[in-house]
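Before the break, one more example. Copy the sequence into your notebook; we will annotate it together after we see the structure.
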Amino acid sequence: MKSITQTRGRPQRILAALLTLAFLGGCATFSADGGLESVQNAGKERGLTQNVAWLKTDKDAETARAAVKKLLAAPLTVDNAVQIALLNNRGLQATYAELGIAEADVVQAGRLRNPGFSFGRLTRADEVEIERTFLFDVLGLLTMPIRTDLEKRRFELTKGRVAMETLQVAADTRRAFYSAVAAQESVKYMGQVKQSAETSAELARRMASVGNFSTLDRAREQAFYAETTAQLARVRQQATAERERLTRLMGLWGEDTGFKLPERLPDLPKAPRDIADLEATALKKRLDVQGAMQEAENIASALGLTKATGFVSVLEVGYRRNSASGQPRQTGYEIDLRLPIFDWGARVARAEYTYMQAVNRAADTAVKARSEVREAYSAYRTTYDLAKHYRDEIVPLRKRISEENLLRYNGMLISVFELLADARQQVAGVNAYIDALRDYWLSETNLNLALTGKSPGAISVGGSASAAAGDAQPGH
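Here is what the structure looks like once it is written out:
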């Protein structure tokens, strides 16, 4: 850096030039959408058809509220449930705020640290000495492009994390919807089983009272009725829990919690999906894999900044102007320079090890992604085959058996207790099919998330680049 001479007026010109550069550096502004469009596009590329909204103002909140009310007016569908969650889930809205925080860091990185000014007044008898100093961060100006680029990388990483959370909320809402509808169906069919058991128990009581039924058989019927009553209570509680889970994800309260669910789950598709190159698709589209790789790149960039500023930690230039009673005015400059003599090697080594850690975490995330997508697809195909088996084999067989038993009962070949027992078994078969169908839709949701979103067991690496970059900042 060129030295600043004591020529009169030269410090003022240098200071004016620095202030001009500082003004130009402060021209960075915020974007109109705050990065939300990137999140929306990332979701669309991964099959998310619903709109994403960041509620920044009261008007935004009112618009979202009107949309939610409209969606709740009709029986809920899985797509509408996801849309409500994306509009109304407050946890997700808190996540969107991370976009604003990250963008503010980008804007701040494009601006210089505030200048400093010090004023001192000393007296000795009648003599008064006044000292004024104006300090300016020169190193911050020189490293501004590097710091701005680093913060832009962080901003992109934040967009990916927010997109991941958006897909996660959408997947959680889908799972909660399917579970709530299945549990509601189970309550209906378990109520039929209880009604059948109650009829059998009452009939056994009456027959036993006239001596046409043994005490043991009556006790068996009564025990089955009692057990069925307990099972119905558990199923009802499960239905309540699943519905409340869906309610929480959609961010509903008050009168909105009275939303109506469909009476049954969606039908099984005609054929399962046949996805080619599962692992390649996951490595290309999964946001956690992309985020881990970008994290490593960001840390590499931070390492470059650490080395660039390794020999000079703080470099500030200041303009000084002193005056004393009866003495000529003093003007000049002051340079504040701190050399990292004791910690330079440790700072660089820490950044390098942090980068190695990020690279290994990225590789670990990729390995897990490959395994998880294979597991998810296996579960998807298995649940599809099971649901199809129940639909095409077990349920029709149970129905045929029930029809045959009804003919035999009409011909007085079997008792009413056998007929009621068969009806209970038929209902149990239908209930098992509902569970299998629910499992299919859950596994289908899990497969989509495994292909495009994130690993539920992934190790968080969100703070690594920040730590490395923090070490790279001048003055740390």
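Strands lie at 116-124, 127-137, 314-324, 330-338. The chain is about 70% helix and 10% strand. Try to locate both features in your own notes.
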